[in-house]
Design goal:
The protein contains 15 helices and 16 strands. By secondary structure, it is α/β, with parallel strands linked by helices. Helix 6 packs antiparallel against helix 14 and helix 9 packs across helix 14. The chain is globular and about 80 Å long.
Length: about 500
C-alpha cells in the first residue's frame, strides 16, 4: 500500500496544538494516526505537533508517552525502521493551565517560531481532545489570538459530544461562531472516517445497479445496529451525563442514516454533500411525546456473565449512581417523510454489554413474486438483502436466490461477499488518519456543519424529554451477552420483522 502512495500531493505546512495532549484520546488515536500518515508519506514536508496539558512532561518524556501508545494501540507497532526517531523530532510539549488566559501567548510565540523555521505561515490546527465542558473556555481564550482571525489557515477541531442537548449545542455553535468562521470549525465524528462508511456513497452513486431501486418501491425497511460487548468501564462519569441515545444515536447512527438516505449529490463539494445530509435530518418524522413509547425503547444492563466472565451491572460501575436511570441501550424506529422514503421504517439500535461487537447496516428489499415457481421452490425463499458491515469485519454482502444443484427446482438464499481485506489487504487507514489528513487539507466534507448538529439534536429531543420526565420502572432490564431488552424485540416484531445479525461465521 505504501508503495502506491509516493507520488501524491502532500498537505501544506501544518502545526497541530493538541489540547489534552497527555490524555487518552491523543495517546490511543491521534498520535498513532499522525504517525501512520507520516510513515505513508502523507504528512506535510514541514509540520509540528505540540501536546498541551497540565501534566508536567519534558519533550522527551512526552515522546516516550506517545511511543508507548503507539506500541499498544496503533495498527503499526514500534519504531518502524527508525521512522519514529524522525517523526518525534517534530513533537514537543507545552505545559499550560487552560484556565489562565495570559498563558495562551505561549501558543502565539510557538506559531511565530515555526513560521521562521518553516519559512512560511503554516496551517494552525487546534484540536480539542479534552472533556466537552472545557471546550467553551478554551475556545474563548483562543479567540483573541490574532492567528484565529486567519480564516484560510487556522482551524479548530471539536470532538463529540457537541452539546448535551439542542440548547447547549446551539449555544456552543453561537460561541464558536463569534471567534471562528464556520469554515474554520471541524466537528469530528470518527465514524465518518471509516472506509466502509465512505464506501456507502460509492456503492450507491457509482453503481447503476443500486440507485434505481434505492427507494420505497423496492426497499421494505432498513436496520442499523451498533452493538458493543464492553461495559462503560472507566467512563462512568461521562456516561452518566450522556447515555446511549446521546452517545451513539444523535451523532454516529443519524450520520449513517444520512449516508444511506441522502439524495445524489451534484458534486463532491463539501457543502453540497452536507446539504443533502441536512435535508435527510429535516425530513425525519418528529415523534410526538405521546407516541415516544411506540417508537423508542431504552434499556440498562444488569450484572451477570459475559463470555464466561462475571461482570458488574451498570449501576455497579465506577462513578455511576447506585440508582442511575441512564440508558445503556436505545432502539428507535424512524421514518423519513420525503418522496424516496415515505413509509419505509428505519430501525436503529445501540447498546453496551450486547452479544457481539458489530456495526452493520442492513437494507431489506421487498420480496420478489414467487408465482412462477412451484410451491416447494419457494419454501426457502428469502427476500434480497444488502448488508454493509462496518466493524469488526469490513465487508458488503448481497443475498439473492440461487437454485440448489439437483433435479428439483429448490431455491436457496446465497451471499455474494466483497471483503475489504481480501480485496485490498490489511493495511487500510484508521478513521482518524483520514479525518486528520482532511483537516490539514482544509476539506470539511466528512465533518459536521452547525446546522447538521442542531438538526440531529432536534430529531432526538422529544425522546430525551420524555425519558427524562418518566423514570424507567424496570431498570436494569437486560442481561449481559444478550441483544438488549425484550421491548426492543417487540418494537420491531409489531411490524412483523426481526432484528438482523451477521451469521456466526461472518467474522471468521
Amino acid at each position: 500500500m505504501v508503495k502506491l502512495m509516493q507520488n501524491h500531493k502532500r498537505p501544506p505546512a501544518s502545526l497541530f496544538f493538541i489540547f489534552g495532549g497527555s490524555g487518552d484520546l491523543n495517546q490511543r488515536k491521534l498520535s498513532p494516526a499522525l504517525y501512520n500518515l507520516f510513515i505513508d508519506g502523507w504528512m506535510p514536508e514541514k509540520f509540528g505537533i505540540v501536546g498541551i496539558g497540565r501534566t508536567k512532561y519534558s519533550d522527551e518524556e512526552f515522546r516516550k508517552h506517545l511511543l508507548d501508545g503507539i506500541g499498544k494501540f496503533s495498527r503499526r507497532k514500534g519504531e518502524q525502521n527508525g521512522k519514529w526517531q524522525e517523526f518525534s523530532k517534530h513533537v514537543s510539549y507545552l505545559q499550560l493551565d487552560v484556565e489562565k488566559e495570559e498563558e495562551y501567548q505561549h501558543i502565539a510565540e510557538i506559531v511565530k517560531q515555526k513560521e521562521a523555521e518553516f519559512g512560511e505561515h503554516p496551517n494552525v490546527i487546534f484540536y480539542m481532545a479534552v472533556a466537552p465542558q472545557l471546550v467553551p473556555s478554551i475556545a474563548t481564550k483562543l479567540g483573541p489570538l490574532n492567528i484565529c482571525a486567519d480564516t484560510k489557515c487556522t482551524r479548530i477541531v471539536v470532538e463529540k459530544p457537541f452539546g448535551q442537548d439542542l440548547q447547549s449545542a446551539h449555544e456552543l455553535n453561537q460561541l464558536l461562531s463569534t471567534m471562528f468562521d464556520e469554515e474554520q470549525i471541524y466537528r469530528i465524528d470518527h465514524y465518518l472516517g471509516k472506509e466502509t462508511v465512505q464506501n456507502i456513497l460509492a456503492l450507491r452513486f457509482a453503481n447503476a445497479l443500486f440507485e434505481p431501486i434505492w427507494n420505497r418501491n423496492y426497499i421494505d425497511h432498513i436496520q442499523i445496529t451498533a452493538s458493543e460487548t464492553d461495559g462503560v468501564g472507566s467512563r462512568g462519569d461521562y456516561y452518566e451525563r450522556s447515555g446511549a441515545l446521546r452517545d451513539m444515536v444523535q451523532n454516529h447512527i443519524l450520520q449513517l442514516m444520512c449516508m444511506i438516505a441522502m439524495e445524489a449529490p451534484v458534486s463532491f463539494d463539501a457543502n453540497e454533500i452536507r446539504n443533502k445530509k441536512v435535508d435527510v435530518l429535516h425530513a425525519i418524522r418528529k415523534v410526538s411525546k405521546e407516541d415516544v413509547h411506540r417508537y423508542a425503547v431504552r434499556g440498562q444492563y444488569s450484572e451477570g456473565w459475559m463470555k464466561g466472565s462475571q461482570v458488574p451491572g451498570y449501576r455497579q460501575e465506577k462513578k455511576v449512581e447506585p440508582e442511575s436511570n441512564v440508558e445503556t441501550f436505545a432502539a428507535v424506529k424512524f421514518y423519513i417523510d420525503n418522496w424516496r422514503w415515505q413509509d419505509v421504517p428505519f430501525y436503529v439500535r445501540t447498546g453496551k454489554r450486547l452479544h457481539e461487537k458489530s456495526t452493520i447496516i442492513t437494507v431489506q428489499f421487498k420480496p420478489a413474486p414467487s408465482y412462477a415457481f412451484p410451491p416447494e421452490a419457494a419454501q426457502t425463499w428469502r427476500p434480497n438483502r444488502l448488508t454493509i458491515s462496518i466493524q469488526p469485519e469490513m465487508d458488503i454482502r448481497l443475498r439473492f436466490q440461487a437454485k440448489r444443484p439437483g433435479q428439483s427446482m429448490t431455491l436457496n438464499p446465497v451471499d455474494m461477499i466483497f471483503n475489504y481485506k481480501d480485496a485490498y489487504g490489511d493495511d487500510d487507514p484508521e478513521a482518524y488518519e483520514t479525518l486528520l489528513l482532511d483537516v490539514m487539507e482544509g476539506n470539511p466534507t466528512l465533518f459536521m456543519r452547525s446546522d447538521q448538529v442542531e438538526a440531529a439534536w432536534k430529531v432526538i429531543t422529544p425522546i430525551l424529554e420524555v425519558w427524562n420526565a418518566r423514570p424507567p420502572v424496570d431498570f436494569p432490564n437486560y442481561a449481559p451477552d444478550s441483544w438488549g431488552p425484550e421491548d426492543a424485540e417487540a418494537l420491531i416484531a409489531r411490524d412483523g420483522k426481526n432484528w438482523i445479525t451477521l451469521p456466526a461465521n461472518a467474522h471468521e
